[in-house]
Write a structure and sequence with these properties.
Layout: E1 3-9, E2 26-27, E3 30-31, H1 32-43, E4 48-53, H2 58-64, E5 74-75, H3 80-90, E6 98-103, H4 111-120, E7 126-132, E8 137-141, E9 144-149, E10 155-157, E11 161-164, H5 165-174, H6 184-190, E12 195-199, H7 210-217, E13 221-235, E14 239-242, E15 245-248, E16 252-253, H8 261-273, H9 279-282, H10 296-308, E17 312-321, H11 331-342, E18 349-354, H12 360-363, E19 367-379
Parallel strand pairs: 1-4, 1-6, 4-5, 7-12, 17-18
Antiparallel strand pairs: 2-3, 6-11, 7-10, 7-11, 8-9, 13-16, 13-19, 14-15, 17-19
Helix pairs in contact: 3-5, 5-6, 8-10
Length: 383
């Protein structure tokens, strides 16, 4: 079954305030749209991601989706309903079996909710997530309560709403001139299709106002930590690179790249914190493109991986282990380099050095070792 995700991002988001449509507002270091797109890409459950955008938003879209492998965006219409129809038409060449239609302003859609929709579509034509109504609902006439509404039969609809692609495309085409349909489930219902409901997710919040953005930015972030350790042999040379800083020395460090042992340990620590393997997986020494490469490139990639997960680096601690050269006089410039690459204040970076009291390979001056720890804050999206 080929599954497409259609993400609707053509609205203006006026209630969020500010100069940008809400789908492009920053949320924990990334545009809201990027969070939504990556949720589907990272789920491993969809084959195509198609975004519908406003014709004037292409530069914002390009900036928000840089590096992501998704379909060319299509332009939306004057209403959400028209934008969805145009997005469905844009998917026609891909001939998906299923389509999940999602509001870009719901950046925290979880993998388990996406899976629940896809699984339910195996036996249904249309599926939506719904949340139970927990508050008492009153019916009123002006300012007078006239009765109570049975909340057991009510659900608060969310997205993504899933459909067999052919039936929702046909329904949108047939009902293109009907203006009172509030979501895609309503389009399917009006076309005569039964809509199945699965449990929604309270964390799948829709951003509507600037207060929503502030509240979501302050939502719980999960602290994650990682450790790294690396060793490089000393050989011919007149300097060593440590933490991206050149230190004159009687020998050089031997390695496929510039052999910056401290940065290599730090990269491993950050990759460990986000569950992304180790430096060898991302930059194998067998790959000639990394021969002699500055190790700051590796650290920049690790930082990008953190940001792609909606996270941020809280602090790092690096220990360099050697008898020589003397590291302490160079701590300030090394810290400055790390602050620039990591994008965090120098006060949250600790670089220090120690010896092994002339014991072992570092004590004999055969090599330099480094160990590092990194603390990273990631959105708490555990199900």
């Amino acid at each position: 079954m080929k599954v497409a995700a259609l993400i609707v991002a053509a609205g203006r988001g006026q209630r969020a305030g500010g100069p940008l449509p809400k789908q492009y507002l920053d949320l924990n270091g990334q545009p809201i749209l990027r969070h939504s797109v990556k949720a589907f890409l990272d789920s491993g459950l969809v084959d195509i991601v198609q975004v519908v955008i406003h014709p004037g938003d292409r530069p914002l879209y390009d900036e928000s989706t840089i590096g992501l492998i998704i379909a060319e965006p299509c332009t939306g219409g004057a209403s959400r309903q028209e934008s969805v129809r145009l997005g469905l038409e844009a998917l026609a060449a891909e001939t998906p079996d299923l389509v999940l239609i999602h509001d870009a302003a719901r950046p925290f859609v979880s993998e388990w909710l996406i899976r629940a929709i896809v699984d339910a579509l195996s036996n249904n034509e249309a599926v939506i997530p719904g949340l139970a109504v927990t508050d008492t609902i009153k019916q009123v006439d002006g300012e007078i309560v006239t009765g109570n509404i049975d909340r057991d039969s009510l659900r608060r609809a969310q997205t993504p709403q899933g459909f067999r692609y052919k039936i929702i495309l046909a329904a949108h085409r047939a009902l293109a001139d009907v203006a009172d349909l509030t979501d895609d489930a309503a389009v399917a219902e009006r076309a005569g299709h039964a809509v199945h409901v699965v449990d929604g997710d309270e964390r799948n919040i829709k951003v509507t106002t600037s207060e929503d953005v502030a509240a979501l930015s302050a939502r719980a972030m999960l602290p994650c930590s990682g450790t790294g350790f690396d060793v490089h042999r000393l050989g011919p040379g007149d300097h060593v690179m440590l933490c991206g800083h050149r230190i004159p020395h009687t020998h050089g460090l031997i390695g496929h790249s510039d052999a910056d042992v401290a940065l290599h340990a730090l990269v491993d620590a950050i990759l460990g914190a986000v569950g992304a393997g180790d430096i060898g997986r991302h930059f194998p020494p067998s790959d000639p493109q990394w021969k002699g490469a500055p190790s700051r490139l590796f650290l920049e990639e690790a930082v990008r991986l953190v940001r792609d997960q909606g996270g941020r680096i809280a602090n790092v601690d690096v220990t360099i282990i050697c008898e020589a050269p003397r590291v302490t006089p160079h701590v300030a410039p090394m810290t400055a380099v790390l602050a620039e690459i990591l994008g965090i204040p120098a006060r949250r970076i600790n670089v220090k050095a120690t010896t092994t009291e002339k014991l072992g390979f570092t004590g004999r001056g055969e090599g330099i070792a480094a160990q590092a720890t990194a603390s990273v804050l990631l959105p708490d999206t555990a199900s």
